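Known limitations

Files may contain more than one protein. Parsers should not assume a single record per file. Below, a two-record file is shown to illustrate correct handling: read the sequence, read the token line, then continue until end of file.
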Amino acid sequence: MSPSATPAATPASTTVPIGRALTYALAWIVPGGGHFLHGQTRKALVFFVVLVTMFWIGLDCGGRLFAFEVSDPLVGLACLAEWAIGLPRIVGAMSGWGRGDVVATTYEYGNTFLIVAGLLNTLVVLDAGDLAAGSKRR
């Protein structure tokens, strides 16, 4: 075989790399979605079930879906934390849930569940981003 007739280079992998932006977006909208996108279905299912269950427990306990308010920084931060769970927050707001029952004994527990579900999803989103960047083993 002559040097000019070298065989064509074959790709090392036939998988298509998934972009980080798509991973972040899907992981935010659907808890566990970024992990599902990268083939970690069991982990994705656990994240989805746990985070969505936490969110619905928060609503069931009479928690409030906070509106963003600049005048009250803590309410604004609670709103941002709740929005971090994505689709469950959107569905809850569109359905009219989360009005908050201030006189209920479980009101603060509900708020805590709603906020923590969003904050935990933020960690899950960042973990999915590490998977997309290749800085984490699958």
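...continuing to the second record:
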Amino acid sequence: MMLRNTMSLLLLVVLTCPGCLFPRNSEPDPPPALHDGHYRTEIAEPTAELKEATKALRGLISDPVDAADTAQFYADFADVIDRDTDIIKTTGTIREGFMRAEKLMLQRTELVGKYPGFGAVKDAVLEEHLGLEDVQLSAEKRAAAVNIFRAIAWSIKNGAP
């Protein structure tokens, strides 16, 4: 009986004492940078070749907040492709995943139809760099996909006034 009471007390102490078993660092992680009321990551400048390939996207999204939000979406999608090792095996998987993610991002927002021509230009850039044929992703093809999505993000972000 005494052992059970001791164990119960010990369990209570452990459950109510955060950090007792796994102490926290004394320095908390810094919060992500806040820009325009949103958390954003920096988007690296692409190569001159990719800037040229995505230049038609610059300025199509004229509102700076819309441009920043949209650019972040493309940068995040590039990051997903870059980090993945198990799911995205073909260019078709990238296209299908992107179309679904884009639809989810845009549904029930004021961005739908707000910037005529943007979708067609973006689709042409992706078609040119990813192709329409479903092919296996080599390390080089994956890197090219990551780079084009990042270049699209950069061009959108840097094209707004």
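Parsers that stop after the first record will miss the second one. For reference, the second record is described as follows. Residues 34-159 form one domain.
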